[in-house]
Amino acid sequence: ERRSVLAITEPPRFHSQAKGKNVRLDAHSRKATRRNSFCNGVTFTNRPIHLYEKVRLKLVAVHHGWSGALRFGFTIHDPSQMSSDDIPKYACPDLVTRPGYWAKALPERFAVRDNILAFWVDRHGRVFYSINDEEPILFHCGIKVSSPLWALIDVYGITHEVQILDSMFAETMTTARLSSARLSTCLPQSNHDSANFNNNELENNQVVAKIANLNLSRVPGLPTDNHIIPCCPNRRQRAQGVPAFLDTDLRFHPTRGPDVTFSQDRMVACTNWQESNRTLMFSDRPLHVGESLFVEVGHLGLPYYGALSFGITSCDPSTLRTNELPADPDFLLDRKEYWVVYRAFPVLNSGDILSFMVLPNGEVHHGVNGASRGMLMCVDTSQSLWVFFTIHGVINQLKILGTVQSSPVTVSPSGSPGGSQYDSDSDMAFSVNRSSSASESSLVTAPSSPLSPPISPVFPPPEPSSSKNGECTVCFDSEVDTVIYTCGHMCLCNTCGLKLKKQLNACCPICRRVIKDVIKIYRP
């Protein structure tokens, strides 16, 4: 019956009118390309999708440098009835907070060029997806199947271009096969995802309740009782990228999130992979300029979500209390101290060794297993700086291996030691809080554009009047038309520049110098 329906049904295409302002379609409406920025890429199918009909998308182009990947799901709202004002910048959280929209993010590890994503909904309102026709992954529950459903596709973040392929019909998920299906527990990977996660948290609980026959003990490598997973398993320490002699005077500070357990010597931090919400932990002393910190990551090796975030602060952890420590370190950015958070590390494996070093010019560089990954951020070295971490999910352990005081590093004219200015191959996603003793702080978030050290700006030759001047580094939407005084960086649109100027202790998103004024530039 499904095959006969498919034979008389035209393959789905992208809706020619209901789309974000950055979406461009080809002549056949089978290929959608996001032209600018990382957002405004929401699209829909031109017709409703049948139950069990697979919406098949080929990831034609993936451009690294942003955070987050494709968002996809379904809606009961007919795109033909939508106006351009009804289509927001983001599917998550803007659309999923409205009734009748269901969407989540594709994990970035699956956002690989030429991968084929297929997703479908069954008669029970469960959404599954698969990558390259591998085993299905349960993605959603509670979809309203009594109404027609259009596919919702947000060409977001690193996903730059997708193509709709011909439809296929999925097999019915029997109880036995559902037991072997993986449950997608991918938590948010960016600030925009957090709202999506909060809105779907209740739904995720319903997912677990509705698939009581999903036996997690059948997942390869997971013990029958996942609560007795060893917190700190003994395994051979990897020596790759670690100096022969390390100082071991830096440990974790006793002040920590309630979901973290320390070893007796406070060199190892562990969590329960299912209860790892408030896991903030600090170093017990400041990290010195020129000093390298080495840590080892512990990973359960399961196909579920895991994340590590790293940050630097001028706040002495001894002045904090456990009940003040949030689950998301971004909430600390409103405090009066200096805070910088970085969370876009690449996929980590068990035993990976990370290194972090603060250079005299304020650059913070990192490496993985002895290989340099470039600059993470630029910080104010005039203050004492403590490091902090959070770990979540299957990344359940962090071990401090030690520190080493490095010899002075020669900084190349580009701003990074011996190479290009940004050698990092991971996505840049961090938040910065720069404040003094004031009770308020200025907050700048930049999903892609890395911070540069304070250097004198060098202006390129004037461009022709017909050319664009790039995107604003705050909204990533409008064109740059404003220069900052006194640093001279031209990186804002006038609207964002005026808003930023009004903030207390406002600083340049590029070099983080104090903003004294913003000047709009008029081109001939």
From TrEMBL:
<dbReference type="InterPro" id="IPR013083">
    <property type="entry name" value="Znf_RING/FYVE/PHD"/>
</dbReference>
<keyword id="KW-0479">Metal-binding</keyword>
<dbReference type="GO" id="GO:0005769">
    <property type="term" value="C:early endosome"/>
</dbReference>
<keyword id="KW-0833">Ubl conjugation pathway</keyword>
<dbReference type="InterPro" id="IPR037962">
    <property type="entry name" value="Neuralized"/>
</dbReference>
<dbReference type="GO" id="GO:0070086">
    <property type="term" value="P:ubiquitin-dependent endocytosis"/>
</dbReference>
<dbReference type="InterPro" id="IPR001841">
    <property type="entry name" value="Znf_RING"/>
</dbReference>
<keyword id="KW-0963">Cytoplasm</keyword>
<keyword id="KW-0677">Repeat</keyword>
<feature type="region of interest" description="Disordered">
    <location>
        <begin position="441"/>
        <end position="468"/>
    </location>
</feature>
<feature type="compositionally biased region" description="Pro residues">
    <location>
        <begin position="450"/>
        <end position="464"/>
    </location>
</feature>
<dbReference type="Pfam" id="PF07177">
    <property type="entry name" value="Neuralized"/>
</dbReference>
<keyword id="KW-0863">Zinc-finger</keyword>
<comment type="function">
    <text>E3 ubiquitin-protein ligase involved in regulation of the Notch pathway through influencing the stability and activity of several Notch ligands.</text>
</comment>
<dbReference type="GO" id="GO:0007219">
    <property type="term" value="P:Notch signaling pathway"/>
</dbReference>
<dbReference type="GO" id="GO:0008270">
    <property type="term" value="F:zinc ion binding"/>
</dbReference>
<feature type="domain" description="NHR">
    <location>
        <begin position="11"/>
        <end position="167"/>
    </location>
</feature>
<keyword id="KW-0597">Phosphoprotein</keyword>
<keyword id="KW-0862">Zinc</keyword>
<keyword id="KW-0808">Transferase</keyword>
<dbReference type="InterPro" id="IPR006573">
    <property type="entry name" value="NHR_dom"/>
</dbReference>
<dbReference type="Pfam" id="PF13920">
    <property type="entry name" value="zf-C3HC4_3"/>
</dbReference>
<dbReference type="InterPro" id="IPR043136">
    <property type="entry name" value="B30.2/SPRY_sf"/>
</dbReference>
<keyword id="KW-0914">Notch signaling pathway</keyword>
<protein>
    <recommendedName>
        <fullName>E3 ubiquitin-protein ligase NEURL1B</fullName>
        <ecNumber>2.3.2.27</ecNumber>
    </recommendedName>
</protein>
<feature type="domain" description="RING-type">
    <location>
        <begin position="472"/>
        <end position="512"/>
    </location>
</feature>
<feature type="domain" description="NHR">
    <location>
        <begin position="249"/>
        <end position="403"/>
    </location>
</feature>
<dbReference type="GO" id="GO:0061630">
    <property type="term" value="F:ubiquitin protein ligase activity"/>
</dbReference>
<comment type="pathway">
    <text>Protein modification; protein ubiquitination.</text>
</comment>
